[in-house]
Amino acid sequence: MPSPKVFVSSTCYDLGMAREQLRSFLLRIGYDPILSEYSDILYDPRAHTHTSCIQEVPNTDIVIVLIGSRFGGRAIPEALSNVDLENLLNSSFDVTVLNDPEKLSITQLEVLKAIDSAVPVFAFVDEKVMHDHYVYLKNKDLVDKIKFPSIDKPETAKYIFEFISFLSHRNKGNSIIPFGKIEDIENHLKKQWGSLFQRLLREQREQQVETRKLFSITEQIEDLKTAMISTIGNAQNREVARGVIKYRRLADFLSGIKFPNFSVVTESNIGFEELLTSADIVSVREIPDARNSFGRSALLKSDGTFYELRFGQEFLNRVNIDWNSFITLTVDVRQVIFEAITDIGRMGPGIVRYRDELFQDRFNEYLERDESKPVTLEDFLKDEPINNADEG
To answer: Which of 80, 125, 154, 347 has a 20 to 30 Å separation from 236 between CA atoms?
Structure first.
């Protein structure tokens, strides 16, 4: 049976007992704890142990960080390169800790990797350290003259306290819980995870209700469309009205492409592949890190720049079918349909937008780990059926 994987991040020497108790707690409730001292992390012989720890974080479902009196070892540059620090600049209102990244500890880097990878982080701070953190906030200018009783090495106090500030000022998930004993952590996690599960169940019920409402509204819209079109007397006008509804997706897509001469859209009968080729589009590929970009697919041009498509590659298949149906209409009707859709204007964000930068440069970090290759337009479209299917 699959169990949630929980990565426990902390220094080991001062928090070894807490880590052991937390592991027992996670096992009791059926979760899968990931602790370095139990060989739960793959220490790849080709990489430093710090890098192995960082690479394990995105494979887990939850990260628990325990912050105590020790700073721990500084992360090596190789591990640091595995975290997109630039992406983290918008994750907190206090990013002082990111101004000096080479001074980050491996524990701190594990947490930053979790945030960068959208893995939920539950942060706990020793209550004595939290007390001294408040003292630090009021006396930052005197930090070199104050000895904080809770901190093992005075020279590390600033970096521990700044990291706590970073976590507490995050845009979301900024809860930090002081603890005096491990039971404090266990009680908090049981309440939080139970409440989260309850909320997910409730949201699922509400989503089902909203889906039924949406289906009902969609049916009503279809009835209205049919009724409106039937009231139009002229046969050509009815055809235009149907076309405005049917080819809206196609029009929104093509309006985002830069054609040397747009008449190729309204007047030619060329195939969909040749249509895209006329705009210098030569291949299609998935965007390797879609969560940090506008789109999910890329239409690559011969010069290496690309169009970013908001949807997956299957969207092109539907547009291909729309195009093959669209070119069966007369030139006059096609022109009127595009003019009508243009007059209505776009509803919501655009489907496609041009990126005046090289795809290789934009996604270089992810392409190094991505084995997929671009697919030529010919290979992508060769198996697509050419029909006049009406998808509405």
So the answer is: 347
Q: How confident is the model over 115-127, as a mean pLDDT?
A: 96
Would you list the DSSP string of 314-352?
A: HHHHHHHHHHHHHTTS-HHHHHHHHHHHHHH---SS-SE
Question: How many Å apart are CA 281 and CA 275, to the nearest integer?
Answer: 9
Q: Check: CB of residue 80 under 8 Å from CB of residue 25.
A: no
Residue type, 360: Q
Task: Give the separation between CA 349 and CA 247, rounded to whole angstroms.
Answer: 17
- Which among 135, 145, 131 is positioned nearest to 67, based on CA atoms? 131
Span of 57-71, 94-108, 234-248, 312-326 with lowest mean pLDDT: 234-248
Main-chain dihedrals φ then ψ at residue 174, nearest 5 degrees: -100, 20
Q: Which value, in Å, is the radius of gyration of the alpha carbons in the chain?
A: 28
| pTM score, whole prediction | 0.58
Q: How confident is the model at residue 197 (pLDDT cuts 50, 70, 90)?
A: very high
Helix axes 235-246, 331-344, angle to 10 degrees: 50
For the residues 337-357, what does the mean pLDDT come to? 77
Give residue-wise pLDDT tens across range 6-29: 999 999 888 999 999 999 999 999
Tokens 């206090």, located at residue: 94
